[in-house]
Structures are given as C-alpha cells and as structure tokens.
Specification:
With 393 residues, the chain is mainly alpha-helical. The protein is 74% helix and 4% strand. The protein contains 20 helices and 4 strands.
Length: 393
C-alpha cells in the first residue's frame, strides 16, 4: 500500500485487494467511515490493522475519534485550504453547484498561498466523503458540519456569510433569484440593519414587478424575528405581507396580517393609517364572504370619519356599507347609504361625484327605477337629516 501526498492533500491511497476487502468489512461498507479511514491511512499507510481493532472495539467511537483526527490533520496544513472549504460549506444552508462554490471561494479574502479555485479542494474533500452530492449541488457532510460549527468563532462565521451574501448580490442572476439569497446570508451574518434595508427596497420593487413570491420570501424572513423591530417597521412589513398575500390570493393570510396591523395602529396616533388598513381589512372580509365582519369594520371606520368630519371618508364608508347591505338584500339600508354618499359627493371632487353617481346608477339598474324610488321615499328624510347634522357639526 503506497501513498501520494501533495501541497493540497489528495487522500489517494493504493489499497491492495486484501487491504481493501478488510477495510470494507470493518467499516461496514459505510462511505463516510471508509472516507475517514482513507484520510487517516493517507498519512499512516501501515495502520490498517490498528484501525480494524479500533472499529471492532467501538464502531461509533472509532468514527468520532477519526473525524477529530482528520479535522486536526486538515488544520495542520499550510495553508489549511481544505479546512477553510469546510468552514465555507458549513455556512451554506443549501447545496450549491461547483460553479457557485467556486465563485464564492474567489471572493473570500484568502492570501496568495491558497488555491485560486475551490475545485481541486472540493475534489479532495469528496474523495473522503467530507463533501457529498445533495440535490443539484454539493454539501458538507452533516457530521463534519456539526464538528466544524462547534469550533468556529463568530468572526469566521460572519466572514463566510458576508462573502456568500456579496457573491449573490453581485451575481448575474435575476434580482428575484439572487436577492432573497443575499438577504438570507446578510441576516445570518448578523447584519440585521442591512438585511432589513435590502428587504424594504427589494420587496417594494418586486411587488411593482409582479415578483410576489420573491417579495414574500424577503418580508416573511424579516417578520420571522420581528420582535427586534420598532412598531413602525413591524407594521410596514406586516402591511407589505398582506398586500403580497392578497396578490397571491392567500386571502386568509392577508387578513391575519391586516388584523395585526389594525391592532398595532390603534395604539398609535396614526389615525389615517389605521383607517386605511381597517378599510382594507373590511374589504378582505367582504371578498371572503364574511359580511358581518366587513360591516362591523366599515361601521367603525364610518364613526371615526364622522368624528373627524372627513366628508370624503364618510362617503366612502357609507358606500361600502351600502354595498354590503345590497348583498344582504337589505335594500332600504343600501339605498340610504348610497344616497348619503351621493349627497356628500356634491362637496367632494368631480371624480368622487362621478363614482357615487355610478354607484347610484348601479342600484337603479339592479332594482329598477320604480323600486329605487320606492325605497328612496322611505329613507330620504333620514339620509338628508344625517348629512345636514354632519355638515353643521
């Protein structure tokens, strides 16, 4: 049995047939165990009988011991390029292709003694099963990863994660593919402020571009640890998530986010923001068929708009309540609320006057002019009195 060593360990061991059969038997055919033995024998080629005894005495203990010795071996190299690759791979939360890993490697702050490419490094690590195929890429063996992570300093972890983030941010991939990856590794590096800024900028851009899945990935990632945010930023992300979920037709999720937004804003002095969110929530309730909740929310909005004497807001909320009443076939209430909106629109913009006139025409088409006038005669005095009280207040 002979061994070939180079500046970068290749772990090439020439086994004669008997030695190979012996290794397969005591390693129980396990590829990782065989890889560990190969790493050890590449430096101590005459120790196979010693390994046999060790494995037969305590199989699991032998693997743990050999793994520790192999990592010390990698650390003893000058430079420790193989161990450095293990550090990099330990921070990768998904399998990456050799091309991607090579691109990341070339952005790491190595000195000239390190290989210019990670490919020969990966070849060496694959030979001893430290790196293994996974999906469409390569990943660090989980047992190796656990050991490496226990040894790593926070600074080493951050350096690797920042490099991975920068690689994706600067890559030629489309934004909706690369930015969520860059964002993930910025967060993992502990750069929370930078990650939040990236999520704000790109989630907004992705929504405008219709890239809702990418936008949702960014926002949901930020909200996973939203307790670190001040209320204003938390509300922004929750509202953004509700918009995205609405566009993805995830209506129940959109409602859940908006309910929290309304609750949060109710505890602030942002009345306009709270009313806008509450109106959106009411519309979502109506879309999903929960007309009682929709009416309740619009009535709360209406009372708040009345309190602030916001005629435009009162008209809008009245029209919404009127539409729900129409759906419930409560035609007197529907006519009353649409009439209120029409009366108030005389003091609003031309566009609002046009909108509420269209609503009134819709009622006329659905009910017929005769029935509309019949209902109007019943509620006209009440709606006019309401508008007059509001204008005198």
């Amino acid at each position: 049995m002979t061994t070939t060593l180079s500046a970068l360990r290749s772990f090439e061991v020439d086994f004669d047939p008997d030695a190979k059969d012996l290794l397969l038997r005591f390693a129980r055919g396990d590829r990782f165990a065989i890889g560990l033995c190969t790493a050890y024998l590449s430096e101590r080629p005459d120790s196979i009988l010693e390994l046999q005894e060790e494995f037969e005495r305590d199989y699991d203990g032998a693997i743990e011991s050999l793994l520790e010795r192999a990592l010390r071996m990698l650390l003893s190299d000058s430079p420790p390029a193989l161990y450095a690759a293990c550090i990099l791979l330990s921070q990768c939360d998904e399998p990456f292709s050799e091309t991607t890993l090579d691109g990341i490697w070339k952005k790491m702050p190595w000195d000239e003694s390190y290989p210019a490419s990670v490919l020969p490094v990966l070849a060496s690590l694959k030979r001893i099963e430290f790196v293994e195929p996974k999906g469409d890429g390569l990943a660090l063996n989980e047992r190796v990863k656990a050991r490496v992570l226990r040894r790593l300093s926070d600074a080493d972890k951050q350096s690797a994660c920042v490099t991975i983030a920068n690689y994706f941010a600067q890559s030629s991939l489309p934004d909706h593919e690369k930015i969520p990856k860059a964002h993930h590794y910025l967060k993992k590096a502990g750069l929370a402020k930078e990650a939040a800024q990236m999520a704000i900028a790109y989630s907004t851009a992705f929504v405008k571009e219709g890239k809702f899945d990418a936008a949702r990935e960014l926002v949901a990632s930020e909200l996973a640890d939203s307790e670190r945010f001040e209320r204003e930023l938390r509300v922004f992300f929750l509202h953004q998530l509700s918009v995205i979920d609405f566009r993805l037709r995830r209506f129940e999720d959109a409602i859940a986010s908006l309910e929290i937004v309304v609750k949060e804003l109710a505890e602030t002095d942002n009345v306009a923001g709270k009313l806008a969110a509450q109106s959106q929530l009411a519309n979502l309730y109506a879309m999903t068929g929960d007309l009682n909740k929709a009416k309740t929310e619009f009535e709360l909005v209406l009372r708040e708009q009345e309190r602030h004497r916001n005629l435009s807001g009162v008209a809008a909320a009245s029209a919404q309540i009127g539409m729900i009443a129409f759906q419930e076939r409560n035609f007197p209430l529907a006519v009353e609320k649409f009439h209120v909106a029409c009366l108030l629109s005389e003091r609003l913009t031309s566009e609002e006057r046009r909108l509420y006139r269209l609503n009134w025409d819709y009622l006329k088409d659905e009910l017929g002019e005769a029935r509309l006038n019949e209902w109007l005669a019943l509620v006209k005095e009440q709606s006019e009195s309401y508008v007059n009280r509001l204008l005198r207040a």
